[in-house]
Write a structure and sequence with these properties.
alpha+beta; Nuclear Transport Factor 2, Chain: A; 3 helices; 7 strands
Length: about 120
């Protein structure tokens, strides 16, 4: 798959709530994933670790009230999407969150992702 195809497939799976399947299908084994500085998941390396991070996030949710995921913006081997969530978390209560997600693709797989959002 090229970058556009990977981006469109990721958006499709995320909109369907199939986050673990997206990691399984689209991520490279040696992927790196970055969260904002100071986050408890600031840097995650490897597909299985990224999948575990995804599972922990899903398990932290009590309810998703609404969410939206933009269409991707593609530039060569990178793409970005905007994600907005209004969710109730088991430990933190209800919070709205808006983030920009940037991905790098090589040989048809996501080799890096980075998430930009305000903490706290």
């Amino acid at each position: 798959m090229n970058t556009k195809e990977v981006a469109e497939r990721l958006v499709q799976l995320c909109r369907e709530g199939k986050n673990k399947e997206a990691v399984d299908e689209l991520y490279a084994d040696d992927v790196t994933s970055k969260e904002p500085k100071g986050s408890d998941m600031e840097l995650t390396k490897g597909k299985e670790a990224v999948k575990e991070k995804t599972i922990r996030w899903e398990e932290s949710l009590e309810e998703i009230h609404s969410s939206s995921i933009s269409d991707p913006i593609i530039a060569d081997n990178h793409f970005s999407i905007a994600m907005d969530f209004d969710a109730t978390y088991k430990e933190h209560g209800r919070m709205a969150m808006s983030e920009i997600c940037v991905y790098e693709v090589k040989d048809g797989k996501i080799i890096a992702d980075e998430f930009f959002y305000r903490m706290g």
